[in-house]
Amino acid sequence: MEGAVSAAREELSAADPAMAALIERVGEIDLETRLRRRSETRPADAFGALLRAIVGQQLSTKAARTIYLRVLDLFGGDTPAPGQLLEASEEDLRGCGLSGRKVSYIRDLASHLIGGELELDRLHDLADEEAIEEIVAVRGLGRWSAEMFLLFHLERPDVLSGGDLGIRKAVQIEYGLDEMPAPERVLEIGEPWRPHRSLASLYLWESLANAPDE
């Protein structure tokens, strides 16, 4: 995998001088390690990953993890089956710290799975936009959540979330923009990064982690 990542770095550098400067400054990124580190805080199964995405909306990482673990505890410590989630009372689910809206969202996710509107095993076979379209049909799962699922769970190589605040901020800094770019502008700037926009995204996030006093 390292050989492929090295080749991707070279292609990114050749395609965009600003990205080349960022890669030179940050150095090598072990893509496999980054993905594994992310997965350590995210469920390994697809249903759990999407459930965790809904639970974590509008919350700090710590709060989201606490509430998600409470939900798991409600089902013996494991990711519940969709049917178990639908059978659980709203009172019990809200007792885990979920809002009424999030309870309705996770139930909608479970209903989509039981009804066959969302087939998680099939997502691997779909093109990126097709997979995103199926995920966002679930209430409570927007495009950003779908993009993060594609990048970190399905490990797609060419995902760029124009609406991600961290990426927008990093693009503003790296490209010397006066203000944070709109999502559409991020996608325009990132067009030369194809087909390695996932790696470019990791570099942009890493730049913020390493930036002084950001």
Polypeptide structure, described:
64% of the residues lie in helices and 0% in strands. It has two domains: 2-38 and 158-210, Endonuclease Iii, domain 2 (Orthogonal Bundle); 43-153, Hypothetical protein, domain 2 (Endonuclease III, domain 1), CATH 1.10.340.30. The model has no long low-confidence stretch (mean pLDDT 91). Helix 1 packs across helix 2 (17-26). It has 13 helices and no strands. By secondary structure, the protein is mainly α.
Oligomeric category: single chain
- Determine the strand fraction and express it as a percent band: under 5%
What's the total count of β strands?
0
Unreliable sequence segments? none
**First CA to last CA: what distance?**
32 Å
Average pLDDT value? 91
Largest sheet: none
CATH superfamily of the largest domain: Hypothetical protein, domain 2
Shape: elongated
Order of helices and strands: HHHHHHHHHHHHH
CATH-assigned fold name of the largest domain: Endonuclease III, domain 1
CATH architecture of the largest domain: Orthogonal Bundle
Please count the helical segments. 13
Helix fraction by DSSP (H/I, runs of at least 4): 55-70%
- CATH class designation of the largest domain: Mainly Alpha
Structural class of the helices, strands and pairings? mainly alpha
Give the C-alpha Rg: 19 Å
Counted up, domains total 2
